[in-house]
Amino acid sequence: MRRSGTITGWGLWPAIGAALAVAGTGEAVWRTGGSGAFLSLAIVVDVCATLPLVLARDRITAAAAIVTVATAAACVLHQGVAVAAVVALVTVWSVLLRRRMLRRRADAAERDASRRRFEHTLLEHTARGERARIARELHDVVAHHISMISVQAETARLAVPGMPAEGATRLLAIGDTARTALTEMRRLLGVLREDAGAEPTRRPQPGLQQLLDLIDETRESGASGVRLIVRGGVAVLDPGVELAAYRIVQEALTNARRHAPGAAVDVDLDYAPGELRVSVRDNGPGPLPDPDTRTAGHGLLGMRERAAAVGGDLRTGPGPVGGFLVEATLPVGAPDE
């Protein structure tokens, strides 16, 4: 016979309740001298103050209420402390308070776990959405270059007189391969537009040439202390890198306007050998002392995704002399011919 949590196969609480009821009955007999008009009443009151412990497992609140009232009556009847009743009272209330405390802890842990699951899901969906937007924008950039490859291959095949047949065949194969790649890319990535429910845009994606317009728009919105600093030899970069840099600056300016309204902001572009360094810093209050990473803004996540998409990295944190700093390093290749 299984006896875990029982005494000789009997429930623990029935055993405790019965033992205290016997003790209460003995105390009633002892206090009344074993006879008298109050013997029966004393036994009933002491039993009512102890025996309800048999309900403590499933009905602890009802047992506590009965024991409390009966214990008060027993102490009045005996004109002193009813020992068995008081023991039952302390026991039942200790168990009741402990169960409520454990239940509150369990509820709090469940709420915390649910909140963490929700935040994790929200961040995951945000990252997926940002990757989808990056993929749509890169789709436009790459599609343009593949289309140019196809057009140039076809133009070279038709425009060069006296071209050997093998060369013409090679150029025709290049054009066919480019058109096939373009078709496959549009089939695989073009569905992202349908998922987002947006109409395809025919406007070229922005690059570093549009930063002045972006800064002018930021100034018109009320942030007058925004300036652009350019270092190094300005060059035309890969469209994907320029798009990533533009979006990072755009998001950093939005965050500065939101979290440090009225603060001066410097946008710094450094054309270094083999890489483009982009930094946006403000002289606002800076980051919170102990930010909770679970509730961090999604804009920082999007900027990191954009930097990673072109093989770069992004760092954020307090500036060297206060404020907040966003700094990205993006690798660059040779400029477009």
UniProtKB/TrEMBL annotation:
Coiled coil: none annotated. It is an enzyme of class 2 (transferase). The chain crosses the membrane at residues 12-30, 37-56, 62-95. It comes from Actinomadura meridiana. Keywords: ATP-binding, Kinase, Membrane, Nucleotide-binding, Phosphoprotein, Transferase, Transmembrane, Transmembrane helix, Two-component regulatory system. InterPro entries: HATPase_C_sf (IPR036890), HATPase_dom (IPR003594), Sensor_HK_TwoCompSys (IPR050482), Sig_transdc_His_kin_sub3_dim/P (IPR011712). This is histidine kinase. Its EC number is 2.7.13.3. Residues 240-334 form the Histidine kinase/HSP90-like ATPase domain. It catalyses: ATP + protein L-histidine = ADP + protein N-phospho-L-histidine. Signal peptide: none annotated. The keyword Transmembrane helix applies. SUPFAM superfamilies: ATPase domain of HSP90 chaperone/DNA topoisomerase II/histidine kinase.
